[in-house]
Each structure stands twice: as structure tokens, then as C-alpha cells.
Amino acid sequence: MLQLIGSLVVVGCILGGFIAEGGHILALWHPFEIVIIVGSAIGAFLISNPMKIVKAAFAGAISLPKGPRYKRQDYVTLLQLLYEILVKIRKEGVMAIERDVEAPKDSALFKKYPRVLADHHMVEFITDCLRLIIGGNLDPHELESLLEYELETHHKEAHEPAHAVQKVADALPGFGIVAAVLGIVNTMASLEGADTATIGHRVGAALVGTFLGILVSYGFVGPIAAAMEHIAAEEAKAFEVVKMALVASVRGYAPPVAVEFARKLLFAEVRPTFADLEASLKGKKPGAAGAPAAARPAAATAK
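Now predict its structure.
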């Protein structure tokens, strides 16, 4: 929603100021200038990026109004899942979760948390981490280092679409200049026998090319790239939460403490309070999504 509001503010302020100064809206309407600038930018984008980044960039731009995948209640649900996994390991041993890890879609434990289960990348990350723990050959420092390498790779991949869109934004003023130069060439070619109005119209069209290139770059595409980067950074926090909880558990901390370590990583906007999270883990919070009844005695035992 903020992206739409911001776009309307950009267009409204620019066109409103132009009209207030005595300008005419139709003087800015030159569709072939738009074809030159936007078409060239899209072509350059396709040339410079593999198909997976092209698809991810378009999908990310379209989904911007939805915001990050993980919101406050989603983080509560994720922490509840991690808590239940850690409690099960503590009570029954690490091998007790082997079946859950090998087939998470068939796991009764994971099925209690459909929002997490719907995120393929998150489920894969959790199960991969648990496989390393089941192997039992890594000490906490080695496990943490390995997970940091994986997160670094994931973060880099998640930011690639935003970086690709930002490069398009950087190139758009140049394509605006290309459109302006072509307009000047067209004007110079038609000087013979042309009246002043015709020449002025063609020069104005050429200047509109420069205007559109700069406007689309700094008013729309650049901000879209920045918003995509913010979304990628916020969504990466969920993976860091998983890493922190599992590493803390391997270091010997009790499940409530390990989950508290993970909670501390969250930004204030999405971080549940200690009391709210504790109540959710114990199943005492009315209407708490994803708080399984089966986890309540386990929570009391771990506490």
C-alpha cells in the first residue's frame, strides 16, 4: 500500500507542479519516447540477467504491496515450532525427530504449523540444520560457522533481484538521453521548411525523453529496488532466528532459553514480548495460532 501511495505522491506532485506553472499535460504525452526508454531498459535487463533473476525480480516487484512473508504472528508460530522440536529432542533424544526431518510434509509435528510448512525454503533450512544435529559430529562453533555460510549464500541470492532492478534504475537516465538525442536528430532532419511551432514541438518531445528517463529511474524503479532489498533483508531474519535457536540448543541451553535467544534477534516491530511468547508456548494465550495442546505438558516439563 505504501508503494502505491508513494507513486501517487510522485506523479501528483510532479504533474501538479507542472500544471501550476502553466504547463499542459498533453505536452508530456509522447508515447514513442516511452517505447524507446522503457523498451530499451527492459531489453538491457533481459540481456544482463539469467532467467531465474528476471522471474524473481518481476515476482518481487509485483508482491511488494503484500510486505514481508513473516509478520509478528508468523514469527510466534515459527518460534513455537522450534520450541516443540527442541523439547522433543530434549525429552526423547535427537533420533526422535529423524522421521520428521526426512518427511516434514508427513510429519505430525510440522503439520501443526501450516504457515511454516508452506514455506519450502524455510522447511528445507530447518530440516538441513536438524540433519547436521542428528549426525552429531559438529560442535556448536562448527555448526554455527556452517550455518552462517549458508545464510550468507541465501542472503546474497535473495538480494540479487533487487540489485538487478537497481542497475536498470541506474541505466534509465542514459536511455532518456538516448531518446532525447534521437529526438534532436529527428528535429534537425526536419528543419528545412518547418515552422517554429513544429520545431518547438519536436524539441519539446526530445526533452521529454530526458525527463521521463530521470523520472522513471528516481521516482519509480529505484524506489522499487530499494523496497525489494528491504523485504529481502526482513525475510532473511526468519532464517537467522532458526539458526540462533538451534545453535543455542546444541550449546546446551534449555528450549525456553534457546527460543528466547532467537526472539532477541527480531526487530521491535515483529518481536513478540517475552510474556506473550511464554504464554503462547505454554498454550495459555487465548486464540494463539499454532499453539498445539500436545506441547503444553512438554513446555511445563522443560520449564
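Residues 83 and 276 are 14 Å apart (CA to CA).
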